[in-house]
Design goal:
The complex is a heterodimer of chains A (474) and B (127).
Chain A lengths: L1 H27 L3 H23 L8 H20 L5 H30 L4 H30 L12 H22 L6 H23 L7 H23 L2 H24 L4 H7 L23 H9 L3 E6 L1 H6 L2 H13 L3 E6 L9 H8 L7 E3 H4 L8 E5 L8 H4 L18 E6 L19 E5 L2 H14 L1
Parallel strand pairs in A: 1-2, 1-4, 2-3, 4-5, 5-6
Helix pairs in contact in A: 1-2, 1-9, 4-5, 4-8, 5-6, 5-7, 5-8, 6-7, 8-9, 11-17, 13-17
Chain B lengths: L1 H21 L6 H25 L7 H12 L2 H10 L4 H31 L8
Helix pairs in contact in B: 1-2, 3-5, 4-5
Classes of the chains: A alpha/beta (474), B mainly alpha (127).
Chain lengths: 474, 127
Amino acid sequence: MIDQQIGALFVQIAYIGASAAFILGLRGLTKPDTARRGMQLAAFGMLLAIIGTLLNHEIVSYEFIIIGLVVGSAIGLPMGLLVPMTAMPQRIAISHMFGALAVTLVGIAEFLHSREYAGGPGVIKMTAIGFETLFGALTITGSFMAFGKLQGFISGQPITFPGQKLINAAVFFGAVGLYIALVATQSGGSGGDSGLIMFAVMTVLALVIGVTLVLPIGGADMPVVVSLLNSYAGLAASATGFAIGNNILIVAGALDGASGFILSILMSKAMNRSFANVLFGAFGGEKTAVAAKSAEGLTTRSVTPEDAAMRIGYARNVIIVPGYGMAVAQAQHAVRELAELIEKRGGRVRFAIHPVAGRMPGHMNVLLAEANVPYDHLFDLDEINEEFHTCDVALVLGANDVTNPAAKNDPGSPIYGMPILNVQDAEQVIVVKRGMATGFAGIENELFYLDKTSMLFGDAKSVLSQVVTEVKGL
Amino acid sequence: MTALLTALGAAAAIIAATSGGTATAAVPTTLIDAQIVEVYVFLLAAFTGFQIITKVPPLLHTPLMAATNAISAISLVASIVIAGAERPLYINIMGMVAVAAATINVVGGFVITDRMLKMFKKTEAPK
């Protein structure tokens, strides 16, 4: 008995230590030079929590635990070591699925167990288990859909059909209704089989919600969706903590929930759209009539890589604006080479990174860091926007809507009000782009028709390699 | 600072509201007490997280996502208990699958976060 108490005390101490390690670890992430050590501390905290749990007196056999740990490590380790940086958005999306799967299974197991052995979960526990299973299940399928869209086996275009919103609403209210009914009827443990059926149907409906939630959302809105799913996975983990009375789950889940929530808000703001608009708007699907206010009568100037090399090679101050096009073309290494070349010739190069450039928060930063671009060359929107008028050349690489001056000048534009990079303030603008296709908002970019703008058409990687060769020859 | 005060205010309000309800609810007081502490823990953790995470620069937002994902795989702790406790076989097996899924995130998540953070370098001092 005393042994058991000492054991329980040790577990609690391990959990408190782990919570502290998580919080301090995340604090490390506020600065690039403390980030790595912070995360090592967090990993140590995780180890502490796992060891503490293995000593839990409730555990009677270790076979299943060991099999699970071994299988999980065998899949997780190669995933961690081998996934290329370009595939990071997909990998983050699929990991939300794994996290949610664990949480959902725990929720289901807790529900079944408490029904059979504890005479029902009771109001408070049912509230927690229901929330956990509801959010967990919709995160499983939602993350899988996001993974599919990012990986490319599900169309990145918003998928819509007539009556979609009605069906979504019906499924959503069905699931929430069942959840409320479960909480109301399961209190005394006298739910009978109806409780089991309600729980099963609620879980299935939650799985359906995950699919219908992500189906109509386009590729460019993925940063918001991935952040939101991150938040849901965290909240579900926190609910697990409430269900089994375990504080460390509550703490870690709350941290994750807060992080995902903050990121979703930041991403929505950077697109000047509300949460609801991202989730229910299916932006980018409707080629709006506004697109008609288009390129008629306007012409672009196209240049060759040689011309571009002349301008870039003699520039003193260059700002590079990367976008999803750079990621698609995997042009980050060619960009770094060009940047180094300009610096060697005495110019200054900075990178201007829009919060929603790419497919997840921070996507461009990771790719450029991978290509060995020092992080003190990377600047946020706020940091660099006033600097564009001082630069000789702004080089736009596969970025489109985030540079569209219509967001400032044209109140009729669908992206009016969205914060953009002030690329048009630069003395000259060179835009590297595959063709004249519009960006995710489906609208024309006035920037491309300015007198100071030259278009350099082609695949970002091969075009830049040519520019690099030309600059070398200057 | 103001956010912290709001946090405490909110926590106090929730406690007041909930404990007001104990008089009428037919639930043992000790259970309510335990739940209150959990609500406390959740709120404080959420506000701490909010304070810290708003300070993470956009530069590190992708590593942040990978890291919080690894941390929220703490559900491994719950999965381990379910896989190893004295429960019916099917529940143990569900626990085992949960352990495997959470372990993927713990191992993969921390490894990948470290790989990313290793890449972020400053400009080298001129030689």
